[in-house]
Amino acid sequence: MLTTAEADNILATHALSQSTETVPFADARGRVLAETILADRDFPPFDRVSMDGIAIHSNALADGQTTYPVLAIQRAGEPLQALLDPTGCVEVMTGAILPTGTDTVIRYEDLSITDGLATLTIPDEMVKGQNVHKQGSDRRTFDVLLPAGTVLRPVELAVVASVGQTSVAVLKRPRVAVISTGDELVDTHQTPLPHQIRQSNAYLLQAALRDLNIDASVHHFPDDIGTITSGLSALLARHDVLVMTGGVSAGKADFVPEVLGALGIRRHFHKIEQRPGKPLWFGTSPDGQRVVFALPGNPVSTTLCFYRYVRPYLQTAMGMVAEPALYVQLAKSVTFKPQLTYFTPARLEATADGQVLAHPLPGSGSGDFTNLTAADAFLELPADTVEFPAGTLAKAWSIG
Ligand SMILES: Nc1nc2c(c(=O)[nH]1)N[C@H]1C(S)=C(S)[C@@H](COP(=O)(O)OP(=O)(O)OC[C@H]3O[C@@H](n4cnc5c(N)ncnc54)[C@H](O)[C@@H]3O)O[C@H]1N2
Ligand code: MOO
Ligand SMILES: [Mg+2]
């Protein structure tokens, strides 16, 4: 069996290869940029008036002039005008190009206009160049605005829009299928018989993948080797990643590892020294182009394995920074005897002194998924320790 760290290393050495695609700008939210976005013009592209008021030449101000005849109005969106008389002024609006012959803008709040004459109210406080956003002061033409690898959040999309790109090159997202197995499972809309349950893991996985901007298809197979084999074979042809749940332990109907092997998926590990989630199985096709995670079916185990291993793996595959574990402080002591890394659900509480306290919520084991609704994260408590006193620092893997 592997330690959690050994499992992390194996996953890192079997990263999915990345390829790119071009998507319309409107669909680029959350994607990872696969090209460099350069400034097509200076930012701002002209000396931009940044306050409504009047534009004057600072020489007149320096000469002690306090009253200026208004000779023109320059609105935002109007072509460049000029102040022909350096002792006059132009009324200017925020966003306008600064008129030729002016270099300083006085706000309406700092002047009064009567009969076409603007009079400064606090001339001594006016400074040459004020209220002008100088051309190129933010970025110059051909400056790199966004390097490849940038995640496109709304602020980055605004930058992409401003350079006029209607489409962008981004990293492809993996095609992912979620597959549950088990004769005891019926779908949400069905009424289970006394020995059946409604399936929930596949919907947890689908929703969690959606949070990663991945639209996964969902499938279910009964515990029948032939059906699972043909079903997985078809799904492997059309997907890069299969995330399975159930059928990976020691039971008479736990066919998943055997079927994956028969389909040519090479096992890189099966079983990690951890609770929950011990029977986690991971493999790839020989060329590394297909990846299969087979998660243990107990719902808490599926949840832990997804957020602890699958999510960081997929984030890396998509060129994003993998979800980091937070370091938090145990709010009360925890005892765990088995020589296994123990992941306990916990509620997190941010305290006024900048700490994050973790309140463990052990629940009643790896079948108790209702317990997770009160949790924010799983705490990772190392295998070599039995007693974890209050105050112990622990990694916390968020679940949402
Ligand atoms: N003799 C042993 N028995 C078990 C071991 C072991 O090492 N030796 N491991 C235990 C551990 S740990 C886990 S976790 C489970 C893993 O089970 P499987 O991956 O084989 O999953 P199943 O047998 O199919 O189901 C287990 C449990 O989870 C429920 N389940 C499965 N799929 C779903 C779903 N989509 N939605 C909701 N619930 C689901 C299923 O009904 C079972 O109750 O094995 C232990 N046994
Ligand atoms: O993954 Mo299992 O919880 O250790 O039931
Ligand atoms: Mg089983």
Automatic annotation (TrEMBL):
<keyword id="KW-0808">Transferase</keyword>
<dbReference type="InterPro" id="IPR036688">
    <property type="entry name" value="MoeA_C_domain_IV_sf"/>
</dbReference>
<dbReference type="InterPro" id="IPR001453">
    <property type="entry name" value="MoaB/Mog_dom"/>
</dbReference>
<dbReference type="InterPro" id="IPR038987">
    <property type="entry name" value="MoeA-like"/>
</dbReference>
<dbReference type="InterPro" id="IPR036135">
    <property type="entry name" value="MoeA_linker/N_sf"/>
</dbReference>
<comment type="function">
    <text>Catalyzes the insertion of molybdate into adenylated molybdopterin with the concomitant release of AMP.</text>
</comment>
<comment type="similarity">
    <text>Belongs to the MoeA family.</text>
</comment>
<dbReference type="Pfam" id="PF03453">
    <property type="entry name" value="MoeA_N"/>
</dbReference>
<dbReference type="Pfam" id="PF03454">
    <property type="entry name" value="MoeA_C"/>
</dbReference>
<keyword id="KW-0479">Metal-binding</keyword>
<dbReference type="InterPro" id="IPR008284">
    <property type="entry name" value="MoCF_biosynth_CS"/>
</dbReference>
<dbReference type="InterPro" id="IPR005110">
    <property type="entry name" value="MoeA_linker/N"/>
</dbReference>
<dbReference type="InterPro" id="IPR005111">
    <property type="entry name" value="MoeA_C_domain_IV"/>
</dbReference>
<keyword id="KW-0460">Magnesium</keyword>
<keyword id="KW-0500">Molybdenum</keyword>
<keyword id="KW-0501">Molybdenum cofactor biosynthesis</keyword>
<comment type="pathway">
    <text>Cofactor biosynthesis; molybdopterin biosynthesis.</text>
</comment>
<dbReference type="InterPro" id="IPR036425">
    <property type="entry name" value="MoaB/Mog-like_dom_sf"/>
</dbReference>
<dbReference type="Pfam" id="PF00994">
    <property type="entry name" value="MoCF_biosynth"/>
</dbReference>
<feature type="domain" description="MoaB/Mog">
    <location>
        <begin position="177"/>
        <end position="316"/>
    </location>
</feature>
<protein>
    <recommendedName>
        <fullName>Molybdopterin molybdenumtransferase</fullName>
        <ecNumber>2.10.1.1</ecNumber>
    </recommendedName>
</protein>
